[in-house]
Fold this protein.
Amino acid sequence: MPRVGVLALQGDFEAHRKALERAGAEAVEVRTAAELADVDGLVIPGGESTTMLKLLRMDGLFDALREFGARKPVFGTCAGAILLASKVLSPAQESLGLVDMTVERNAYGRQIDSRIVKLEPEPGAGIEGAVESVFIRAPVIREAGPRMKVLLKYEGAPVLAEDGRHMVATFHPELTGDTRIHRRFLEKLAAG
Ligand code: GLN
């Protein structure tokens, strides 16, 4: 059984841990570089990316995470996707640069900043049927580099995509009972 870490500094790590367990993985919370060294893949949850970034730097985890991502799969959701991006706008902030994309924070507007929509997968995504997607103050992926494979789109922009061993979602797959997205990430761990 793959052993997956969930970065547990801030945000909705608990919901991800439960979703990974429902998907059949052993899931553990990661707060230190030593704990990170002990897992086969990592989920970075939603929350507040600026706060998470500060905590990552304080705990010396920022560089450890970058090195981890050079070898092992990382799945970032919402704030986690912002942290994985190569470029962050609105406002600009430092990021891990593990996924070849530019993201704009809080880009769906302030009036309606949360919504639930059903999305049909892109052709060739390998996902059967619609995916219920919960957006909460979500970022928008403004540019996806040539390595990216887009699996789901909303209003023309990618919302679920892969860059090699890594995955990003601008919505919250941990908040529905659907385990397909987490299972897809677990397949990446199995692939090594
Ligand atoms: N708006 C948040 C940020 O910029 C992300 C929101 C979320 O993770 N639900 O970090």
